[in-house]
Design brief:
The complex is a heterodimer of chains A (436) and B (252). Helices cover 22% and strands 38% of the residues of chain A. With 436 residues, chain A is α/β, with parallel strands linked by helices. Chain B is α/β, with parallel strands linked by helices. Chain B has a single domain, classed as P-loop containing nucleotide triphosphate hydrolases (Rossmann fold, 3-Layer(aba) Sandwich), CATH 3.40.50. In chain B, the strands form three sheets. Chain B has a six-stranded mixed beta sheet with strand order 6-9-10-3-11-12, sandwiched between helices. A four-stranded antiparallel beta sheet of chain B has the order 2-1-4-5. In chain B, strands 7-8 form a two-stranded antiparallel ribbon. In chain B, helix 4 packs across helix 5. The longest helix of chain B has 15 residues. Classes of the chains: A alpha/beta (436), B alpha/beta (252). The interface between A and B is medium-sized, with 23 and 31 residues.
Chain lengths: 436, 252
């Protein structure tokens, strides 16, 4: 009998099996089957791939992560991950599974919106889910996107009817609890014509010695709609976080995303935005403040598919200790996308000899009447500014914090909800306590 | 208050100060004049603790403390203030937060409680008035987009807020029109008391019409080569520095 040799990927995929999705509608099972088929042909991304040159996920492939529901969830442990003073609708997921006890779902037909878990929506609102779920995530070559598509346990479903503005934001809390957990939360956000919604998605850890968070956010921004997404990544230092965000914008829409990778062992974000209608605006902001050995890799892709659209991208990083940062920003301007305005800026401050940052802007422009710009800086604190502040009586640590706040504040000022801003400020301050 | 003895300092291996002596007592205003490259700005920078300069010999005693042993912020806490020749622009830091942080850190150093917002605001308004600094500048980033005159007035404003014992003005008059010069000088005169002192580094006699010095020193080749009363400044304006240099070189 021939022996079958299994590679790391095969073993990894076997560990992900065993979840029963047979109750799902055929159309959704098809998405999973297609993703599984893609996974059979793909392998874990290696450093040989240009887009993965600086981010090594070999350890993920060799670790026996598997989906598992959390046991013994304690109320206090959940509430510790709420954002203080934030008045919001809350959805909680633990290890990718819905925790209804801690969530406020809104499913009444007469309300202007639906907030529930995706598995429920797949049954009760199949007509709303079907046209959009998986639509933006069909890329055959993305290993981790397919991994989530195949094994996602559950996630948030948000649907906003035309002309409806939500009275308060929605906070989706994704928690991980337990060892060797593979968590695949996946949110689907649909904002219909001229609606307005703000969603805060946070990723945190209850307790874990090792975890993989492989997440997806799919956003559909209807004509004239305004969607804000704040993504806060604050898992423990035993966690690998690989995520992808997708937004498809129809005409006259605005989509704004604030990405705050604060803690984990490794964070990889792929942000994909397609400006698929004229006069749309996409705002991409990222604030990366790292210490220790944290590695963060932000890959962004803005597809200007239609004319008269604008994208504003600002990513800033402050790196201490042995932290490493990667920024790869692609802007693609289709040949019909005349009058495109695309701006990209990436700035880094390196505080220690062992910290590093790799930045790569990529512009592909096929239209001839466009305004595109990109800029990238890597440096240290301005000595003149530091001396100026100190000569006015500020301790060196205070002076550094003042300059740090000013530098990163340019990005964080785009977080308009005060409690969220305070929460993020706190996370960042904790990462720079060593400056004291 | 300030006693400098035999001060020698260099930058990037190049010696600038070569045995400088200066004594300043409370209530006095000293003007430091001299040709370009004589070491005037180096003296100001060394007093404030700029790290690019290395002191190789001599001592600086400030109110019984070894000033050279103190970090820049400690010098500020002790009561030394340097008004910069080129005030630094700091994008993203509002002028008001900057000065509030500075005031409270200095107060903490001096063992005083942090200022209540109300008290701080009234203090702020009073000092803004002193140098005719528009309240609008408070919310702008430190020095960013300020005119030359606004930057220098902002320096005097900061000095007024921090209430130093020794104010060192490094060519504060350079690049100022006469109106701005008057405002700056008036601010200094208002702050002057029997308990504090000023060292005014300048190229031009013109500033000394408005800030009247008790002593005028000529700095040349890293040393003070001549000291006189305010009339010396007029003489320098009239005759230049060559006669002093000749006189000095004959002596040595």
């Amino acid at each position: 009998m021939a022996t079958l040799t299994l590679n790391d990927k095969d073993r990894f995929l076997i560990n992900q099996e065993g979840q029963d999705f047979s109750h799902e509608a055929k159309t959704f099972i098809k998405i999973r089957e297609l993703a599984l088929k893609n996974l059979k042909e793909l392998d874990f991304p290696s450093k040989k791939l240009e887009d993965w040159k600086y981010t090594n996920v070999r350890e993920v492939s060799k670790t026996e992560f598997r989906p598992q529901s959390a046991i013994n969830i304690i109320d206090e442990k959940i509430s510790a991950h709420k954002i203080p003073n934030l008045n919001a609708y809350v959805l909680v997921f633990v290890n990718g599974f819905f925790a209804p006890k801690y969530s406020n779902t809104i499913e009444q037909k007469e309300s202007g919106f639906i907030i529930t878990n995706l598995n429920k929506a797949k049954k009760d609102f199949i007509k709303l889910v079907e046209p959009h779920l998986g639509f933006q995530t069909r890329a055959k070559d993305q290993f981790f996107v397919n991994l989530n598509s195949a094994f996602s346990q559950d996630g948030g479903f948000i649907y906003v009817k035309p002309n409806v503005q939500l009275d308060k934001p929605i906070h989706i809390i994704n928690l991980v609890d337990g060892d060797l957990v593979a968590s695949y939360p996946r949110n689907l956000i649909i904002a219909e014509k001229c609606s307005e919604v703000q969603v805060i998605v946070s990723y945190e850890t209850i307790d874990s010695n090792s975890a993989l968070s492989n997440v997806i956010n799919e956003v559909v921004v209807g004509e004239g709609a305004n969607v804000k997404l704040d993504k806060i990544q604050n898992e423990n230092l035993n966690t690998f976080h690989v995520g992808a965000d997708f937004a498809k914008q129809q005409k006259n829409s605005v989509f704004t995303i604030n990405t705050i990778p604060a803690n984990a062992k490794l964070i990889r974000n792929n942000l994909n935005i397609i400006l698929d209608g004229t006069n749309s605006v996409a705002n991409l902001y990222g604030a990366v403040c790292l210490n220790g050995n944290i590695h963060v890799d932000n890959q962004t892709y803005v597809d200007h598919a239609k004319p008269n659209c604008e994208s504003n991208e600002l990513y800033k990083a402050v790196l201490n200790d042995s932290a490493t940062n990667v920024f790869n920003g692609k802007i693609y301007v289709n040949k019909i996308a005349q009058k495109t305005n695309a701006f990209q800026s990436n700035a880094n401050i390196i505080l220690s000899d062992n910290a590093s940052s790799n930045a790569k802007p990529q512009l592909e422009i096929y239209a001839d009447d466009v305004k595109c710009s990109h800029g990238c800086t890597i440096g240290q604190f301005d000595d003149e500014a530091l001396f100026y502040l100190r000569s006015r009586g500020m301790r060196e640590s205070t002076a550094q914090k003042v300059l740090l706040d000013a530098f990163i504040g340019e990005v964080l000022d785009n977080i308009k909800t005060e409690p969220v801003r305070e929460y993020v400020d706190e996370l960042i301050a904790e990462n720079f306590n060593s400056l004291n | 208050m300030l006693k400098i003895e035999g001060l020698e300092a260099e930058i990037e291996g190049k010696q600038i100060l070569r045995g400088l002596n200066l004594e300043v007592k409370p209530g006095e205003i000293h003007a430091i004049m001299g040709p370009n490259g004589s070491g005037k700005s180096t003296l100001a920078s060394v007093l404030a603790g700029r790290e690019d300069y290395e002191v190789t010999a001599g001592s600086v005693d400030f109110l019984g403390k070894d000033l050279l042993d103190l970090a820049p912020e400690e010098r500020a806490g002790e009561g030394v203030f340097l008004a910069f020749q080129y005030p630094v622009e700091i994008p993203g830091v509002s002028n008001i937060n900057f000065i509030k942080t500075a005031v409270n850190e200095v107060r903490e150093y001096r063992g005083l409680p942090a200022m209540e917002t109300k008290e701080f605001m009234s203090h702020l308004k009073e000092k803004q008035k002193l140098v005719k600094l528009s309240g609008k500048l408070a919310n702008r980033s430190v020095n960013e987009g300020f005119s030359g005159g606004e930057k220098k007035r902002n320096e005097i404003f900061q000095m007024a807020m921090l209430e130093p014992k020794l104010g060192v003005l490094d060519e504060t008059d350079s690049g100022l029109d006469i109106d701005a010069l008057r405002i700056v000088a008036n601010g200094v005169n208002e702050l002057k008391s029997n308990d504090n002192a000023f060292v005014v580094v300048t190229h031009y006699q013109r500033l000394l019409d408005y800030i009247v010095p008790d002593f005028v020193h000529v700095l040349y080749d890293g040393k003070i080569v001549k000291t006189g009363s305010k009339e010396l400044a007029l003489e320098l304006e009239d005759k230049g520095y060559d006669w002093i240099i000749e006189e000095f070189e004959k002596k040595s």
